[in-house]
User: Which sequence fits this backbone?
């Protein structure tokens, strides 16, 4: 490739992927605020949130409708992922493989100065994959328990063999899983997107869809080499 035409940035995320990301993020914020307001209803800030939304009934309605929208986006995401892998023969890049565990060990050795270089990762490294599947599993639990709490009579009329203890169990699971998801978001995802030394003060990739060549070489060397070898048209100037 001619050095005079060497690109400065690489298109990494299509605008549809970025739209999906910010849709999920917005719905997550609404669900967190309305859900926490119900869990900690005795707190002063909760009373303000509930009052601003027009009362507890409206707060529950907003929470449930946001949960319904989140569920639709979640199902659509999994459906599209399944179809593009099955019919378009796309590589299932989020599937966890043995290499992810060896990459983890390699990075641990690198951080401890027992290795000369970090792991050579592709489009998604082990951290992204573990976070992704954590979201998939957590979302499945939240959707199932949320549906059960929203329509308990229908569930028990349809599945009469289910024990009555399922409702309080679903309530505890729904609430605790929500706190776990919020904790992971604050501690893990926001740190990696904002406070990590490699992206501070902000990772702009999910805004622009582009990543610098130097960062691509450092964080995703295998993907960079694949783009150079198979899809050089994906390399674009900002």
Assistant:
């Amino acid at each position: 490739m001619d050095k005079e035409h060497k690109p400065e940035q690489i298109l990494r995320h299509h605008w549809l992927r970025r739209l999906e990301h910010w849709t999920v993020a917005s719905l997550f914020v609404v669900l967190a605020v309305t859900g926490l307001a119900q869990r900690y209803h005795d707190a002063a800030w909760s009373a303000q949130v509930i009052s601003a939304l027009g009362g507890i009934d409206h707060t529950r309605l907003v929470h449930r409708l946001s949960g319904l929208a989140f569920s639709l986006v979640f199902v659509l995401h999994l459906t599209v992922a399944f179809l593009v892998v099955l019919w378009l023969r796309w590589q299932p890049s989020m599937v966890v493989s043995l290499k992810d565990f060896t990459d983890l060990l390699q990075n641990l050795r690198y951080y401890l100065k027992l290795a000369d270089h970090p792991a050579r990762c592709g489009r998604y490294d082990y951290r992204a994959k573990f976070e992704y599947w954590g979201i998939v599993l957590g979302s499945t639990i939240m959707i199932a328990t949320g549906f059960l709490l929203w329509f308990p009579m229908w569930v028990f009329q349809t599945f009469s063999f289910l024990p009555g203890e399922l409702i309080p169990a679903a309530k505890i699971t729904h609430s605790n899983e929500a706190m776990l998801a919020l904790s992971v978001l604050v501690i893990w995802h926001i740190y990696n997107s904002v406070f990590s030394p490699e992206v501070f003060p902000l990772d702009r990739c999910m805004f622009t869809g582009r990543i610098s060549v130097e960062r691509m070489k450092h964080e995703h060397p295998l993907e960079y080499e694949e783009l150079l070898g198979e899809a050089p048209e994906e390399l674009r100037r900002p």
Observations:
- Residues 19 and 206 are 9 Å apart (CA to CA).
- The two ends are 18 Å apart (CA to CA).
- The first helix runs from residue 15 to 39.
